[in-house]
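User: C-alpha cells for this complex, please. No commentary.
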Amino acid sequence: MSLFKEVTSLIHKEILLEWRFKYAINGILLYVVSTVFVCYQAFKSVDSTTWNALFWIILLFASINAINKSFVQESRQRQLYYYTVASAKAIILSKILYNMLIMLLLSAIAFVVYSLIFQSPLGDPLLYALSVALGSTGFASVFTMVSAISSKTGNNSTMMAILSFPIVIPLLLVLIKVSNHALDGLDRSVSVDELLVLLAINIITVAISLLLFPYLWRD
Amino acid sequence: MKHYWWKILAMLLLLYSIVMGILGNVPALPIVHETIRNVYFHVPMWFSMFTLYFISVVYSIKYLSSNNPRHDLVAVESVNVGIIFCMLGLATGMIWANFTWGAPWPNDPKTNGSAIATLMYLAYLVLRNALEEEQKRGRISAIYNIFAFPIMIVLMYILPKNTDSLHPGAGGNSGFGDFDLDGSMKAVLYPAAVGWILVGIWLMSLRFRIRNLEYGRHQAEY
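Assistant:
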C-alpha cells in the first residue's frame, strides 16, 4: 500500500470510530461550552486583550483534552495490529491530520459560542478566523507528538501538561500577537510575518514528528 | 598532560577573564556604568548552556541510531549541567537587571524565553523519572530532547529578536559590539566564553564518568 492510501484509510477509520461512539467529540464540545460559561460567569465583561487571552487559554485546554486520548483510547493489541499493517509514518500522519480536522471543527464551534456569549468588537474577523485555523492546526500537530510520547508513560494527563506547555508557548505567543492585530483591525500587511512563522512552526513540527515517530512506537 | 591540557587551559582562561574582567578597560556608559563587566560572566553562561544542550541533542540522535546506553548517559548529564548554567545565567542576569533595569524580573521576552526553556528541560528530567525500563527511557527521552531543541532556539534566539526587548541586539537595540570600539572587551569576553564552555564540558564528563562507573557495576551485578 502506498503511504497516501494508508493515510486516507487510517483517517477514514478514525472518523468512523468517532462517528460510531460520538463520545469524545460530544464530551469535548460540552467541555468547551461549559468552560466558556464558567468564564462568562466569572468575568461578565472584559476588555479586548483579556477577551483574546481567555479565548486562547480555553482553546489550549480544550485541545489538550481532545488530543490527549489519541494514543490511549484504543487497546495495545489493536495498536500493535495497526503497526503491522501500516507504516509508522502513515500512522503518525493520519493521527496528525485527523486531530487537525477535529481541532478545526472544535475551534470553529468554540469561536462561534465564545463570540456569541462574550460580545467583543472584532476588527478583522477574517484574519482572526485565519489565526484560529492556523493555531488549532498548530496545537494539533504539537500535541499529537507529545501525546504519543506521554502515552508511553503511566500517568498520562500530568505528563501531557508538563511536556507540552513549554513546547507550545512560542506558538501561543505568536498566535496571541496575530489575533491581537486582528482584534484591533490593523492592516493585514502587519501580520504577514507572524502568519509565516505560524505556518513554518506547523511544517517543522509535522516534519520532526514524521522523522521521530518511527523510533517511538516500537515497544 | 596529553589528556588534561584543556582543563588547565580552561582554568587559565577563567583566571584571565576574572582578573581582566575586573581590572580591564570598559567604555563609560550611562545607566550600566561599571556593571557592564557582568557581560564577562552573564553571557558565557548562556554560551555554555547552549553548547551543552547541543551536545545533548547530538548524543540523543546518536542514541537513537546506536542504542548505546553510554550515549544516553552523555545526553542526560549534558542537560543536567546545562540546567545549572542556565540557573547561573538567570541569577547573574537578575542581579544585573536589578541594577540597570530597576527590577530583577522585568517583563523581557529573552528572560521569559529562557525560563520557559528551563521548564522544558526540567520536564525532560521528569519524563526520564517517569519511565522505568532503561531502553524505553533512553529512546523516549531522546525523542523529546530532539523535539525540544528547536523550540529552545526559537524561544531564546528567534522570538526575542523581533519583539521589544531590553537586551542589547534585540528588538532594534544596538548590539554589544557597538559599544566596544577598540575590541578590548571582546578580548576578555571570548576567552571567558571558551573557558566556561570547557568547564561545562569538564563537569559533564566528570558526571558522565561517575554514571558510567555506576552503570558498569550495575551490569556486573546481574
